[in-house]
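Closing statement on the adenosine-5'-diphosphate sub-project.
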Amino acid sequence: MVLEGVEKIYPGGTSPAVSQLDMKIPQGEIVMLIGPSGCGKTTTLKMINRLIEPTAGRILLNGKDVTHVNGDLLRREIGYVIQQGGLFPHFSIADNIGVVPKMLGWDKQRIRERADELLHLVGLEPSQFRDRYPRQLSGGQQQRVGVARALAADPPVMLMDEPFGAIDPITRDRLQDEFLEIQRTVGKTIAFVTHDLQEAVKLGDKIAVFATGKLEQYADPETVLTRP
Ligand code: ADP
Ligand code: ADP
């Protein structure tokens, strides 16, 4: 995935939330977007999955310019995980995981099988969890379902916005390990927002350091640690 000269000025905004952003996320790698609150990390993810439209620049997925395509068309290309799962409270766990497959017209049987397969992948026993509702799950379990939901239609790209940010440190550590293990199996191209340097170093193939709307540094974790 490639971002070229990407910029976002929000309506009524005086200075750009993101400007002159050039960034490459190599296929199958995890790039960690790190930086203080308000520096444009979330805005960058939202431009990639077209929840918002860039005011300038280009975004290429697999060499295809997706800068101005309808966001709905990207649902099968891009999985999105946000803080606290973002699960629909009135949908069962299986129905939450099935949201995108349903949109894509999969039949019920296939959606059910996929939900079970993914629950198993993220370490939740399908028979125990598929018919529960999000409020009946711990924070860590909800995040696991959030990851499963994002993986449902097997998109090549995953965007993760502080997925473990609201989780206690011990569970977070376990989720990070599980996430790396899952990534070894699924090999997605991942942009992962965090404000936690330790998390960035642990999970990232590369780290993109943001500062007030600009990319300040882009390097492997070792370089970021030794040459801050
Ligand atoms: P981060 O994810 O790094 O915390 P954001 O991308 O959320 O940063 O925000 C970047 C800048 O854009 C901030 O100054 C923020 O106030 C502003 N911003 C974010 N969303 C909106 C919006 N919907 N309308 C106007 N300004 C926004
Ligand atoms: P974790 O250690 O994974 O964060 P918790 O300690 O929060 O989990 O929860 C322990 C167990 O209780 C979990 O298996 C969870 O699914 C279950 N649980 C928590 N809240 C509810 C609820 N409201 N209804 C049913 N089961 C629940």
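The chain has a mean pLDDT of 94. With this model delivered, the sub-project is considered complete and its resources will be redirected to Aim 3.
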